[in-house]
What we know:
Elements: H1 5-16, H2 31-43, H3 49-56, H4 68-83, E1 87-89, H5 90-99, E2 104-106, H6 112-119, H7 126-129, H8 144-151, E3 154-158, E4 166-168, E5 173-177, H9 180-190, H10 199-204, H11 210-224, H12 230-243, H13 271-282, H14 289-292, H15 300-337
Parallel strand pairs: 1-2, 3-5
Antiparallel strand pairs: 4-5
Helix pairs in contact: 2-4, 9-11
Amino acid sequence: MKRLTCFFKYYKKLTGSYEPKVHSNPALRGHNDFLSVIRQLKNSPDVPRTLLTKSIFPSRPGCVEPPLADQELAINLAVKVMTMINCSTSRQSWDLLEAGASQVPWRDEVSFNDFVTNAFPLTDHPSLDGNFEPPLDIKAFLMARKLKKRRGLKFRATDDIRRHLKLNRKHNNIELFHHTAFLKEHLRLTKEAPSNLSLEESLKRGALPRQLALECLDSIQKILFPLSDPKSRSMLRSLISTSGFDPDCLHFESVSIRKSEEENIKYHYFGNQLADLYEEVQNPPPRGWVEKWFERKSGARHFVMWTLIGIVFAIIIGLASLAVGSYQAWLTYQQWKHPQQ
């Protein structure tokens, strides 16, 4: 399982962060308890969180029931490992919002299946699906090296799949879910399953929806860093060595993880994010005070800006010519008024 080294590193870090509320009777007494929580999530994706919590943590002989907050923390950690979604309870959501944390609340009355469904709303983008005549293939504009060259964008690894392709204009970076080995394992789990496999059935197999995993994987290996492009491979290799990206990002697989109809996919989960990146390239927001003086429109903003710069430059040249002409006239006048004997 060498290919999952990056994921197990994350697993070790995550489980190592677990701090029980009551050390005498923690919700998780070891890895076996943790794996048991994951199995319960897989087996009961249609059960509301409240009932699921009660079934996962029954009364232990001779022990007091673990604190509810500890039980909820254990479930949140299991969700993170199973789906790579930063999860919280509804009771934690306001505190997390104030702290600026990016976590999805899983409410008591909501099942695991509905929680995952709500975490990933579906969209349609014809420009990404090739449904335009002629098709507008915006994917050609979204190579990472082009984004870096044209907009100076940087790339930051994230362990939260919901933040994949998240553009942060303040810090001028893009977050990328880099655990490609994790995605491939999920695809292997459902490769032989029927094409119409429901989300509930996927979760029972311990897998994310195939479409979601494929979009995340292909957006890295086919759009941002097409592995057939030497410069893109070199850039990706640099991110692996300096920014903690999964080394598996450089390894392209097809037959072992894909069905025949999945070579070219549409983007229903990450279409909005890709469209936002395209908009950033085509119509970048104003940066300096000069650009901010203009309205944010399309490329016309740059035409107006350079036109104004040309006018200002012409005025400066004109003033300089006038000054030179005036000086020469003054010299001529002085020579006339004070002729040399």
